[in-house]
Write a structure and sequence with these properties.
Elements: E1 4-5, E2 10-11, E3 14-20, H1 31-47, E4 51-57, E5 61-67, H2 74-92, H3 96-99, E6 111-114, H4 121-133
Antiparallel strand pairs: 1-2, 3-5, 3-6, 4-5
Helix pairs in contact: 1-2
Length: about 140
């Protein structure tokens, strides 16, 4: 367990977040593209002082074990990841424009659960790893 810090806070906040592609389209069928999207989400998180410990990009949805500073509400953290990744995905993968001509890759909603005594970081990590095995 590592306590992270900002100039005014010490924290150990972890979230399991998940969201789906718009219309639940299976657009990330290629393993290489899945890996690139996972790397992209990690880079975006790092740019906003967040960190992805575990992550899986599946054909039609994403699971992340994410830590974010207390100044970022979980909703804001997800909003950043989804909006910035959408812009970068449309730029990097031109073929997505034919799938999503409306300009949105992800659904509006998302799932978030905080880590605590009844649900540990390790349990969430195992669950995310198992998601990749289902393919």
């Amino acid at each position: 367990m590592s306590i992270r810090h900002t100039s005014h806070a010490r924290y150990d906040l972890w979230y399991h977040v998940a969201w789906a592609t718009k219309y639940r389209k299976q657009v990330f069928m290629d393993r290489k593209v899945q890996q690139e999207v996972k790397t992209l989400l990690r880079e975006i998180a790092a740019a906003y002082d967040m960190r992805v410990d575990k992550g899986e990009v599946l054909t039609d949805h994403v699971h992340l074990l994410l830590t974010a500073p207390p100044r970022l509400a979980p909703s804001r953290a997800v909003q950043i990841l989804k909006s910035v990744s959408t812009k970068k995905l449309f730029h990097q993968y031109r073929w997505l424009r034919k799938q999503y001509w409306g300009g949105e890759v992800w659904v509006q909603g998302y799932f978030v659960r905080s880590v605590g005594p009844s649900l540990t970081k390790e349990q969430i990590g195992r669950y995310i790893d198992e998601q990749a095995e289902e393919i």
